[in-house]
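Hi L., both proteins are below.
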Amino acid sequence: MSNRKTVYATLRRKVLTMELPPGASLSENELAAALGVSRTPVRESLILLAEEGLVQVFPKVGSFVSRVDPVRVADAQFLREAVELTALDDLPTPLDPALLAALEDNLRRQDTPGITNEEFFALDEDFHHGLLRLSGHGAAWATVSAAKGHLDRARRLGLQEASPPTANASQHRDILTAVRSGDLPAARSAMRRHLRAVFADVERIQRRSPELFASNEGPTPVRRSVVVWD
């Protein structure tokens, strides 16, 4: 991979996992030194992340990790729901036994005692990607993933409050049970309920920690020794 692709992937992962939290200041010099690269791939990566809405650049002030935007969360969730519910309509008969076995194994690992949020998040992603593969639309996952940066950060905030993530694992089980039995209405209902749970998480967390979220009257950050949102 080129320096830019590597730096972009690294910074995007740090933003999505909250290692670089909403509002964090992004110094090209510091990031370049930490990653062992020149400033050019860092600058180019920040431009790409800004195009995704994950970074904000304020002239004469600097670059910052954007706060989670509820509007972008809703847009990404709309796209994801449209893709995943439509894919359920294309489930073949019979279902691929190897793909079903992989999904069952995924569910077992979701119930691992002491599983971390990031481990669960990775299994969650694999589970939904696996359902798309089961319907023959696995390639669509790349498009969904690229569009859901703000959604993924909201989901991670929700997971931080739901440890262990038993409710999410149970919802996955409900979806797969309905898929196995061929009950498409139940599968669609379970999937819709599961995907829309993020809205309740956003509403609850936004009340408690409004500084993590964007608003229409969002202020301009001031670069000091720490980031301050006036």
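That was the first. Here is the second:
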Amino acid sequence: MTQPTDIRREGHRASPDEHLRTALHLAASGVPPLPLRKGKLPFGNCPACGRNACGGRPNMKTPGPCACPQPCHGWAAATTDPHVLNSGPWMAAWRHAAAVAYHPGGVGVTVVDLDNADAIAWARQTLPATRTVTTTRGEHWIYRGTMASSNAVRPGVDIKSLMQYARWLGPGVGAMTALPDAVRGLGVKEPSPARRAPQGLTAPLRGGQGECRHRTAAYLDRGIAMAEQQITAAGSAIHATVYRTFLAVLSTHGGCGCLTDAHVARLFTAAQAKGETARHCTDAWTNALTRLGL
């Protein structure tokens, strides 16, 4: 991961031109950047890509065959193509950008995001030394190698690598070392004591229990789309919103066998785009099933 050396540090109020120059420096070094809006959030899907209309997954998942020129697919918008970064739709994003981020997994690294002094003290006692970058509240420890991203793996510690973005705060100091097992182990979740639902269903839920009362697939598709929208629009209480939405979907569609793994995946994708982990999604789904006796 070759890092440019002329990037502004956090706390400096960079202009849109500086954000674009930073992005171009990163791209030239093989680091795929993307713009962040206020609140350190990526730009949302444009209307043309809403509700998966472009053929890709919305928000922070793989964009697939989407040919949309706008930076509207979260972490997957990150690119090293200077022509894309300088294109008209992207220029509008840079004018409104509050910061620059990059896709760690896209450059083959993992960021251990330490959010406070206690987390830093834990890392110094537990993890091998590597390149570090100072943040507003803590540090980023950057290791060579990739893994699945995961939030809140322990108090004050997030992992940002594949399918995630990290804010660019400069090249950091120290030699980068290989991703250790101690970090990989943080992303392994212990099984919940509750009965677990599968991450993806391979057959319709409770299939073979009679004729589907919904008659047409369009009715179900509208219900799933509304559930996705409800989760995506949540500004707070994400855990509660996801659970209530799962409960509503299952109460309407869970008893007749029409829900498939593709429908569940759409709901999980929307929840994870709001910061929920796969485990939280599975637990919420399981709890909803249990409450409804399904």
